């Protein structure tokens, strides 16, 4: 009924495991930096879009006011 399991000494990570962990960290850092760049880029695009929207709204409002005055 009871099974005897052999104990396995995991010990410390091998050089290969450490190397793999370091590679993962480098990839994570690279992805994190890329994400930051994309966020900055998106923020710039958003700011530009709001600026264009503000200009368009001002033009439309000016046109409406001119039309009302003309009538």
Q: How would you describe this structure to a colleague?
A:
- The structure is a single chain.
- The chain is mainly α and 71 residues long.
- The chain has one domain.
- Helix content is 79%, strand content 0%.
- It has one helix and no strands.
- The longest helix is centred in the middle third of the chain and has 56 residues, at 15-70.
- The chain is rod-shaped, with a radius of gyration of 31 Å.
- It starts with 14 loop residues before the first helix and ends with a helix.
Radius of gyration: 31 Å
Number of strands: 0
Shape: rod-shaped
Query: What proportion strand?
Result: under 5%
Short description:
By secondary structure, this protein is mostly helical. It is built from one helix and no strands.
């Amino acid at each position: 009924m009871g099974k005897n399991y052999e104990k396995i000494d995991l010990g410390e990570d091998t050089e290969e495991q450490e190397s793999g962990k370091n590679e993962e960290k480098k990839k994570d850092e690279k992805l994190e930096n890329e994400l930051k760049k994309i966020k900055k880029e998106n923020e710039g695009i958003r700011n530009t879009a709001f600026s264009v929207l503000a200009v368009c709204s001002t033009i439309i409002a000016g046109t409406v006011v001119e039309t009302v005055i003309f009538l």
